[in-house]
UniProtKB/TrEMBL annotation:
Transmembrane segments: none annotated. A divalent metal cation 1 binds at H8, H10, E86, D194. Pfam families: TatD_DNase. SUPFAM superfamilies: Metallo-dependent hydrolases. Gene3D superfamilies: Metal-dependent hydrolases (3.20.20.140). It comes from the Bacteria. Keywords: Hydrolase, Metal-binding. GO terms for cellular component: cytosol. InterPro entries: DNase_TatD-rel_CS, Metal_Hydrolase, TatD-like. The keyword Magnesium does not apply. This is TatD-related deoxyribonuclease. One of its GO terms (molecular function) is hydrolase activity, acting on ester bonds. A divalent metal cation 2 binds at H122, H146.
Length: 241
């Protein structure tokens, strides 16, 4: 495996993104830079050699006016990338109040995507809702559920739909997370860190690299085989890495 790909990294939280990307590149690590808003994608895309994803995170949805404007920006920016994220639904207690607006955003995004797009999806207490939205939209875009937290049945449904799951260290801390790693077909697993945790961060590139290697090693242990060549093939297939 020549390059490890962090498929869910928040480069927009980093104070010096060019330095971080360069340091990670020296360590043979590449990132898919998830964005929180379409307008943020336009402001950041191309600033570093990272793969920039066009996103509209459910936590950053505020009101009807913002949604209308940001979806227009999304449509404008879409031809500039085939990577989409972070998008999805969060129906946890803290976020459920604006669920109708979240659904409007997700439906608006899915209606615009084609089969060449790869999505990184946030689904908190919403795996079935997201899968229903994917089915209703008819999109042929590829779903990658980031930090999957649904049920075994929902995971089976995702896999049957051609979906993938990106695994981070914290997911492996739970018994259920480890069970999911065993359940998913080997060729549907990807790596992620979901780092850094918040804006204004200066993450240690060595820590990011170590987290990816540790995750890969743990996945290999859980699967009883060396997963490096499998994940290398999958990340190359989806992301060209």
């Amino acid at each position: 495996m020549t390059v490890l790909l962090d498929t869910h990294f928040h480069l927009d939280f980093v104070t010096d993104p060019a330095r971080i990307v360069a340091s990670l590149s020296d360590a043979k690590v590449a990132v898919v830079a998830q964005t929180l808003l379409p307008s943020a994608f336009l402001a950041q895309e191309g600033a570093t050699p990272a793969r920039y994803a066009l996103g509209f995170h459910p936590w950053w949805i505020t009101d009807e006016r913002q949604v209308e404007g940001e979806l227009a920006v999304f449509a404008e920016a879409l031809p500039r990338t085939r990577f989409i994220g972070e998008i999805g639904l969060d129906l946890g207690p803290r976020r459920a109040a604006n669920a109708p607006l979240q659904r409007r955003v997700l439906d608006g995004i899915l209606s615009r995507l084609g089969e060449h797009h790869v999505m990184s999806i946030h689904a908190v207490r919403a795996a079935t809702d997201v899968l229903d939205a994917l089915d209703a939209s008819g999109t042929q875009a590829t779903p990658v559920f980031h930090w999957f937290s649904g049920t075994s049945d929902e995971l089976t449904r995702l896999v049957r739909r051609g979906g993938y799951v990106s695994i981070n260290p914290r997911m492996l801390e739970s018994k259920r997370g480890r069970a999911f790693v065993r359940q998913v077909p080997a060729g549907r697993l990807l790596l992620e860190t979901d780092l850094p945790e918040g804006p204004g961060s200066a993450p240690d590139p060595e820590a990011v690299t170590a987290a990816l290697h540790a995750t890969l090693d743990k996945i290999s242990q859980l699967r009883g085989r060396d997963m490096r060549p499998v994940i290398a093939q999958t990340q190359a297939q989806l992301y060209g890495a």
